[in-house]
Design goal:
- This protein has 657 residues and is of the alpha+beta class.
- The protein has 4 domains: 10-201 and 635-656, Porin chaperone SurA, peptide-binding domain (Triger factor/SurA peptide-binding fold, Orthogonal Bundle), CATH 1.10.4030; 216-251 and 516-615, no CATH class; 256-266 and 424-511; 296-400, Chitinase A, domain 3 (Roll), CATH 3.10.50.40.
- α9 crosses α19 (517-546) and α11 (278-287) crosses α15.
- The longest helix is centred in the middle third of the chain and has 34 residues, at 406-439.
């Protein structure tokens, strides 16, 4: 960013995206760099915040989502229960997105995810403190440009301000909070990239790694299929019974339960909220006028002759004289942009003719801002001194303050009022549902009738989960808790997302059972046939190997086709994985003496490999990176973060996690 940008605390900056008007593309390269280079720990922080928008963000939950109870402190800064709850939801969403929306595996229970989320929050605080202590900052224009690049806010390929506001509002998030979080992430990303970019590897190391990765091994192989022996396998009823008795534990069907539940959601309530009256719309418009006001902005260019405050008087005099000389050349008619490219010492703007883009008050250092906002469009300033040196400023354009009229924002206000009314109803009904389900712990009929809710069913499902709400870890945990399953009580309120709650009770239990033989007979028979056919295939393959000869002779002896893929790489995806893995485990063969090895395949077949030679890739020490630099960059970053954490006073209340 330009050196004239202010390092003002982002929390105190005004809303910057109420009406996004993008500056020239002076920040696009920087933003693309962040997108391209983001990796390791901080990459997914940005991803959660921006590219997987709004999965569980929003106002603090009515039950368990908020809270000011202290969980941890980092250098005196507090992390509350509300902070952790939101980070936990984001952590769940991140992993769920990685799994394509499938249920989270059982080992990723709530306790594990909450600990991961807390670790992330601690790291963010540590990085933020380092960034603040060392003067890292991001300008309003950079935040605007980043947000405008988010696909979720685009319509027809262009940033859509209404879509932006609607997306945030639907999740209960104010633009100020979202913009602060974007700014915070971009500032922290500067620190991360500054460290991770120091990782490197030598040409020799890269070549060695490349040679190992791209080594090719010459292979001939054949497969003896288990299916070809299935017809020769005979299985008796005694075989099936004996296998069943010996492996009954394989046929245990776990306990399953069916639950009845009541669901309360903001979405279902919103459909029945009446349209707000004109007076309410007008009142909300007046209350929100600042939100619909785009403050005055100015677009300026500058030429900087840099000098540090610590430089001596002679250096200041020389810099001032240089700036005065440039000012005189401008007075005589030389082109401002041309002079900026040739003379300006601001690396962030010189190449673009001194262009700084649009900015409002509070974005620049005071002396620079004062000069800009005292000028008329097209005017060139006298020499202006700031902490960065001496500037000559040209005011290019003025964008006056603009307030959107009521008619333009009416639909937005109507949606907002209806959403707020739905949230109010949701809060009221949530309290009533919590009270009624607690006061009537042995049924859901009373709260259903009182609140006009439908009793729904889910299941039967085991403790490993099922479909729909039965895939939710919180639902599974509540269902199989002693209080609900054994005592027969209603569950506590379970939050499944922002403004979505359920209360459940167990309505039916199917005890654990061992499936009877009649139910699994065919399954057992098939297992026995597959095992015995696989054994026959392995024996046939080993007999062919014992017969000796070359690869073709062994394949002929086994009565199968010989496959000759030639030289094979480690990343070969056309051969069975077991074949490739075994091939690259074998020692290098002697000249004219191929290595022969067999390996069982997952489907019961047996493969025989004939490994006859290897070749290394051509190329010098300037080969491809093969990931070494990235791995070392992540190591550098992890070490840096560990050092920062070790130097930071961090207190964690384990009982609150």
């Amino acid at each position: 960013s330009s050196p004239v940008r202010s390092a003002t605390n982002p929390l105190r900056w005004p809303l910057i995206c109420g009406h996004l008007n993008l500056p020239p593309g002076s920040f696009s390269d920087m933003l693309q760099t962040i997108r391209d280079k983001a990796q390791g720990f901080f990459a997914w922080v940005i991803v959660i915040l921006i590219t997987i928008p709004f999965a569980f963000w929003g106002i603090n939950s009515y039950f368990g989502g908020g809270g000011t109870a202290l969980v941890a402190t980092v250098a005196g800064e507090e992390i509350t229960q509300g902070d952790l709850n939101r980070a936990y939801q984001e952590e769940r969403d991140r992993i769920s997105a990685m799994l394509g929306g499938r249920p989270l595996p059982a080992f990723l229970d709530e306790k594990t995810l909450r600990r991961q989320a807390l670790d992330r929050l601690v790291k963010e605080h540590v990085i933020r403190n380092f960034a603040e202590d060392n003067g890292f900052n991001v300008s309003n224009a950079q935040v605007r440009a980043y947000i405008a690049g988010i696909d979720a806010f685009k319509s027809g390929g262009q940033f859509d301000n209404e879509r932006y506001e609607t997306a945030l509002r639907n999740r209960g998030m104010h633009p100020a909070e979202f913009e602060y979080r974007v700014r915070d992430s971009l500032v922290n990303e500067q620190v991360v990239l500054g460290i991770s970019d120091t990782g490197f590897s030598t040409a020799t190391e890269r070549k060695q790694a490349r040679d190992l990765r791209d080594q090719e091994r010459e292979l001939s192989w054949f497969r003896v299929t288990a299916d070809s022996f299935r017809k020769d396998v005979r299985v008796t009823e005694d075989d099936i019974k004996a296998s069943y008795e010996a492996t009954k534990e394989n046929y245990v069907e776990p306990q399953k339960v069916t639950v009845s539940y009541l669901e309360l959601s903001n979405e279902s309530l919103s459909a029945n909220v009446p349209e707000p009256g004109e007076a309410a719309i007008e009142q909300r418009y007046q209350e929100s006028k600042a939100e619909f006001t785009q403050p005055e902005e100015r677009r300026a260019s500058h030429i900087l002759i840099a000098v540090k405050a610590s430089d001596d008087e002679a250096a200041h005099t020389k810099a001032h004289e240089k700036a005065a000389e440039i000012k005189e050349r401008l007075r005589l008619g030389e082109d401002f942009a041309t002079l900026a490219k040739a003379e300006s010492q601001d690396p962030g703007s010189a190449s673009s003719g001194g262009e700084l883009g649009w900015f409002g008050r509070g974005a620049m250092v005071p002396a620079f801002e004062q000069a800009v906002f005292d000028m008329q469009a097209g005017q060139i300033s006298d020499v202006v001194e700031s902490s960065f040196g001496f500037h000559i400023i040209k005011l290019e354009e003025i964008r006056p303050e603009n307030v959107k009229p009521l008619d333009e924002v009416r639909p937005q206000l109507v949606r907002r009022l209806k959403t707020e009314e739905a949230e109010r109803q949701f809060y009221d009904m949530s309290e009533r549902l919590a009270n009624l389900s607690y006061e009537q712990p042995d049924n859901l009929q009373v709260p259903a009738e009182e609140l006009g809710l439908e009793i729904k069913k889910a299941g039967p499902f085991p403790q490993s989960g099922g479909d729909g709400i039965a895939a939710e870890p919180k639902v599974i945990a509540a269902t199989f808790s002693d209080d609900v399953l054994k005592e027969g009580n209603n569950s506590e309120m379970i939050e499944l997302g922002p403004n979505r709650l359920i209360v459940l009770r167990v309505s039916d239990i199917q005890p654990e059972r061992i499936k009877p033989l009649a139910e699994v007979r065919d399954q057992i028979e098939d297992v026995i046939i597959a095992e015995r056919a696989g054994e026959k295939a392995e024996n046939a393959a080993k007999q062919a190997i014992a017969g000796g000869g070359d690869a073709q002779s062994m394949a002929d002896a086994a009565g199968v086709e010989l496959e000759q893929p030639g030289f094979v790489k480690r990343n070969n995806a056309t051969l069975p994985g077991e074949v490739v893995e075994k091939l690259f485990q074998l020692p290098k063969p002697e000249e004219g003496k191929p290595k022969v090895e067999g390996v069982a395949l997952a489907n019961g077949d047996f493969a025989v490999l004939v490994y006859s030679g290897l070749r290394s890739p051509e190329g010098d020490a300037n080969g491809p990176n093969v990931g070494l630099t990235q791995n070392r960059s992540e190591t550098e970053l992890n070490g840096f973060l560990a050092d920062l954490e070790a130097k930071t006073k961090i207190t964690i209340k384990e009982a609150e996690i």
